[in-house]
Design a protein that fits this description.
It contains eight helices and ten strands. It is α+β, with helices and mostly antiparallel strands and about 260 residues long. Residues about 155-170 have low confidence and may be disordered. InterPro entries: HNH (IPR002711), HNH_nuc (IPR003615).
Amino acid sequence: MGEEVWEQCRDQGIAATGYYHHGEPVVGDCSKISEEEFDAIWRDKAVNATTSQSSVKHVAYHMKTDDIIYAKEGTLIAGKGTIKSECKYHPGIVKQEGVRWEHYVEVDWDENFKPFTLDLAANQHTVLKLNSERVEKIREMETKSDMLYDYVDGVLKANEGEQYITETIFRKRNRQLIKQKKQDSDYRCEVCGMNYEEVYGEIGKNYIIAHHIEPIGSRNVSSPTTIDDIALLCSNCHNMIHKINPPMSIEELSYQINK
């Protein structure tokens, strides 16, 4: 999953997937149909998306309470959690431009998990059932990551402005800043003023998207990110900002919707 999708899942305490065909979910609430009926629906609709079919099936039928789950962004293992429910159905529970997911399980994401990079040679899969070899690789990297982050903590405390082990430090500091920014906010979009809880009720509580005002990829030199470099946006405003390249500024979009 991409970074923004992962943030939506993490913030809502869920893991989700889905697939839309002609604007509608291929299958509805999987708790009301058997796995055999699920397969029959995909066959009848002639949907040529075997990877997505497999992903939805894993979430709907194969994930069980107390199973361990890992979240992946490309080759980055970004999160680890424990499944806390059977599959549920809520169209659009995770959405951004080009992504709209409806099948999900509740997850207790480990706040102390340290992300690490690991190529599982299966990056095309949205949901992948881990075999023993992959589990062993992940556990080995988890141990190394714990040791590295303990060292990085010391480096950050002693040399806050310097870039040692650049990627690791950036990801760690970036997550801390985003978490602090959200905790200090009223979870209201800085462009349009939307608050997800006011619109969607309890399911929208404490949900908002973190946006880097200066895109990370556009920086010519390594520079520290501060809390003022992060804006909090609803998904619609965030998508609109990124409709053009380079992205629109907060002020430009505010002008567009208020003129």
